[in-house]
UniProtKB/TrEMBL annotation:
Organism: Comamonas terrae
Protein name: CBS domain-containing protein
Low complexity bias locations: 147-159
UniProt keyword Transferase, yes or no: no
Top-rank taxon: Bacteria
Amino acid sequence: MTTVKDVMTRGVRSLSPTDTVQFAAQAMDELAVGSVPICDGQKLVGMVTDRDITIRSTAQGLPADTTSLSQVMSEGVRWCYEDQTLEEAARQMCDAQIRRLPVVDREKRLVGVLSLGDVAVKFSAEEAAQALRDISKPAEPDRRGISAAAGSTAGGATP
């Protein structure tokens, strides 16, 4: 039985809720990643993605150099334990349609990240392809509070 700790990526960079959006964007650029776990000490409290920065910060006109990650990060993120089976964690990823899952120990301290690529390495080509299909199913867009930028096809104002 393969566990998450057998295939996860260790030594993951995390940021603090008090770090700025600009600092997070710079870290993502340097690390060539699109998401970073947010930790208060070693405790996982959220995730910030390049999409969070775009939608919750840039689109709202918030200044990147003074806006803290606590204002734009996703809270209540899904995670798994390092001693869970890989199959259980992969199911969580499919159910939530996420490509990266933070991994915590039993004290809920961040110890790594499980990516779709990590899963694909351990599963057969057929199982990995199915996981990718399940994770990549299109989601319905959130039509609440559509901005004028969305245009008339999305229900927003026409310029």
